[in-house]
Write a structure and sequence with these properties.
By secondary structure, the protein is an alpha/beta fold. The protein contains nine helices and seven strands.
Length: 239
Amino acid sequence: MTLYPLYKYLIYIPFMVAWTALNFFGVALVAPFSQQAASRWFGGMWGRGLLRMVPAKLHIQGMHHMDRHQPYILVANHLSLIDIPILYGWLPLDLKWVMKKELRRVPFIGPGCALMGHIFLDRSNSEAAVRELQSLKTNLQPGTSILFFPEGTRSRDGKLQRFKLGAFHMAKDLDMPVLPITIRHAYEILPPDNMDLRPGRAEMVIHPPINLEQVQALSAEELRDEARRIVCSGLGQDH
């Protein structure tokens, strides 16, 4: 481990920059013809490469709960930036991300996400955020799932925060099942507020979806609370 900082600065960070740039150019070539192909080919390859080069391992539970041909509203907890390569790299779905607008300024990542049709929300302007979500609903392609981090930002203390309602209003508006996902130990690979990257082993738990009948029967608030309870159960925390 004493040599790992050398690996991080001399090998991993240059690799991360070059790998992100390479996949951005792939996205730029393919996205004008197919956002879905650009997302699955280059977004997925980007995520898997970043995690494997840490090096870190990922253990997945519950993949059988997910139908790759079924579109979902996905909701996941968020403790680390490494959550994004985990979800993008290993979920065999066409995903549209709902992310904060500040990420649009990140070199390669922001323009690449824009080319793939991801949605950037201005959390300080609720009217603009609503317009962006309406645009996403209007332009959503068949078979596309939408991913939210419903806490709104990364947890700094490891505890699951309150969930915002946007994902659950959208699930009801679009008649889409909700797929709760719990990510564990990612913060041990990359803590939320620094670049103290280290090797490790993360886990992703894919829970049984909240089916369409339940989505239709529950209010948005009840749906939010049920999804949070499920995600929380994967963390072993009281909800």
